[in-house]
TrEMBL record:
<comment type="similarity">
    <text>Belongs to the protein kinase superfamily. ADCK protein kinase family.</text>
</comment>
<keyword id="KW-1133">Transmembrane helix</keyword>
<dbReference type="InterPro" id="IPR050154">
    <property type="entry name" value="UbiB_kinase"/>
</dbReference>
<dbReference type="InterPro" id="IPR011009">
    <property type="entry name" value="Kinase-like_dom_sf"/>
</dbReference>
<protein>
    <recommendedName>
        <fullName>ABC1 atypical kinase-like domain-containing protein</fullName>
    </recommendedName>
</protein>
<dbReference type="Pfam" id="PF03109">
    <property type="entry name" value="ABC1"/>
</dbReference>
<dbReference type="InterPro" id="IPR004147">
    <property type="entry name" value="ABC1_dom"/>
</dbReference>
<feature type="domain" description="ABC1 atypical kinase-like">
    <location>
        <begin position="95"/>
        <end position="339"/>
    </location>
</feature>
<feature type="transmembrane region" description="Helical">
    <location>
        <begin position="516"/>
        <end position="539"/>
    </location>
</feature>
<keyword id="KW-0472">Membrane</keyword>
<keyword id="KW-0812">Transmembrane</keyword>
Length: 543
């Protein structure tokens, strides 16, 4: 039996509560696998529904909701991962919601007053004590500054951090158990998934982080008045309080209000797509949850973004891979899809014949125009799961964002084709990455790398000579033919001579060439390096 309770002794009360809830909802496989069956249970009311009448996914979803914000966030992540779970599970987990009953003002008021340094009725010209939104992490109030701006005041729920930190410790331990007890699950990197979950939740527990995220994304669109981000009022912000402008907008799925406002829904869909792809493909940082409540249609056909608790980040390499994937999808290139997927999934060892057939079936099923991006990406991740491949977490976050954004755009325009709308941004991204300046930067990086490697050669050679003088280098040679040994020594001597010449060039001449400009150094350095390596290869083959 797994002795989880002993490993997690510091959080034994929370662990017992988790076990009680899971057992109460009949999530038996998880309970047994994690060794929770024998923990002391906490007296608790039975679920209001007869769990025996519920399917296993339904029981898990209801248990997660009862377990609180940490598990709800985790369940929402799993709901967006068809590369990890089959549709029967993802569809049920997609029903998870984080809307909960608000904390009474009597509990949250003293905390807010302590953080503001004065009662909110004094800090603000107006403050509505009734929250306009209440979620598992925070709740939101309307207010007005003395200077006249309408603002929202976001407040963390009291005593939340202690529970979440305990949950994260226990879930990290559970991930280690999963990798040990279920070796077939190791390819899904459960510990890495927990690391990303912890990173996201810790970010949400610090509202200053959300404020910084807002300003980071707003800076991308500086100078554009059609993409709107709320202004942060830093003088009232802290870890548990966020004060920002109230964005007057309409959710994209509110058909009645959109019609009354007379907005151009097709134009808004295009602008929303441009904004999201500008963030993701060009800047490498994007809003990770662009659902209808976080992207608002504004007057004059503007798009407003709110709620920046979690943002996604993509490295330059990932962005390049994404462009290749989009190109492969548009060209119906099954081999290109395979190459990208294998590159992403790293150490996996799939059945190549099965993967090739899956890739071909995928491109054939999505050959019609216009393409439904949400369906394309969902099927792509399903193809990965069916071939025992798991997507990298950063790309899974992006895909979730793209699928969500695609759904929002289809609310605005049912015939919306995100692939076609993405054309200008994709071309701009490719121009940036593969322009002369972009290639020059890559060449400069290569030159610096070559210089760094070459600069270490004299030290290594000097160290080898010192060791030889000290008699601390032992060489064992098994002589089976003196003539072969002689030729081998000659070839080795030639290789050393070439290496010393290349090293001398890199350490003596190259620093001077740098003064002439990096491109000159890169060109000459590459020529010398290629000639030297080529010579060594020819010597190696000349037996």
């Amino acid at each position: 039996m797994l002795k989880t309770a002993f490993v997690a002794a510091r959080d034994r009360q929370r662990l017992s509560e988790i076990a009680t809830i899971l057992i109460g909802f009949g999530v038996n496989r998880v309970v047994d696998r994690l060794g929770l069956r024998y923990l002391p249970l906490i007296p608790r009311r039975k679920p209001k529904v007869d769990v025996t009448r519920l399917s296993e996914p339904e029981r898990l979803r209801r248990a997660i909701e009862a377990l609180g914000p940490t598990f709800i966030k985790f369940g929402q992540v799993l709901a967006s991962r068809p590369d990890l779970l089959s549709p029967i599970w993802t569809e049920e987990l997609a029903k998870l919601h984080s809307q909960v009953s608000p904390v009474p003002w009597e509990q949250i008021g003293p905390q807010l007053e302590a953080d503001l340094g004065a009662p909110p009725q004094e800090v603000f010209a107006e403050f509505n004590l009734e929250p306009i939104a209440s979620a598992s992490i925070a709740q939101v109030y309307r207010a007005r500054l003395h200077t006249g701006e309408d603002v929202i005041v976001k407040v963390l729920r009291p005593n939340l951090r202690k529970i979440i930190e305990a949950d994260l410790r226990l879930m990290a331990h559970g991930a280690r158990i999963v990798e040990t007890e279920w070796p077939d699950m190791a390819r899904y990197q459960p510990r890495e998934q927990m690391r990303h979950l912890a990173e996201g939740l810790n970010g949400e527990l610090d509202l200053l982080n959300e404020a910084r995220n807002c300003e980071l994304l707003a800076a991308i669109f500086e100078g554009r008045d059609d993409i709107v981000f709320p202004k942060i009022h830093w003088e009232w912000c802290s870890e548990r309080v966020l004060v920002q402008d109230f964005i007057h907008g309409i959710p994209p799925n509110d058909e009645v209000r959109l019609k009354e406002a007379g907005v151009d829904k097709k134009l808004l869909a295009q602008k929303g797509t441009d904004a999201f792809l500008q963030m993701a493909l060009i800047e490498g940082v994007f809003h990770a949850d662009p659902h209808p409540g976080n992207m608002l249609a504004m007057s004059d056909n503007r798009i407003g973004f709110i709620d920046f608790g979690i943002i996604g980040r993509l490295s330059q390499r990932r962005r390049s891979q994404l462009l290749i994937l989009i190109g492969a999808m548009l060209k119906q290139d099954a081999d290109g899809l395979m190459a990208v997927l294998l590159d992403w999934t790293g150490t996996s060892n799939p059945d190549m014949t099965k993967l090739q057939m899956s890739a071909q079936a995928f491109v054939e099923s999505h050959s019609s125009i216009p393409l439904n991006l949400g369906l394309v990406l969902t099927d792509f991740m399903t193809m990965a799961r069916e071939n025992d491949l798991a997507m990298p977490t950063d790309l899974a976050i992006l895909f979730k964002g793209l699928v969500t954004a695609d759904g929002v755009m289809r609310h605005l325009d049912p015939n919306f084709d995100l692939f076609a709308a993405a054309g200008p941004t994709v071309r701009a991204s490719m121009k940036t990455q593969f322009s002369l300046d972009g290639l020059k930067q890559k060449a400069e990086a290569l030159g610096v790398g070559l210089y760094g490697a070459a600069s270490e050669l004299p030290t290594l050679i000097h160290l080898m000579l010192v060791r030889l003088k000290q008699g601390k280098v032992t060489v064992e040679i098994e002589v089976k033919g003196l003539d072969k040994v002689t030729r081998g020594i000659e070839r080795a001597a030639a290789r050393v001579a070439v290496a010393l010449v290349v090293a001398a060039f890199a350490t003596q001449l190259a620093p001077r060439l740098i003064d002439l400009g990096t491109p000159v150094f890169v060109t000459i350095g590459l020529i010398v390096f290629v000639l030297g390596v080529g010579w060594l290869v020819l010597l190696g083959r000349n037996k």
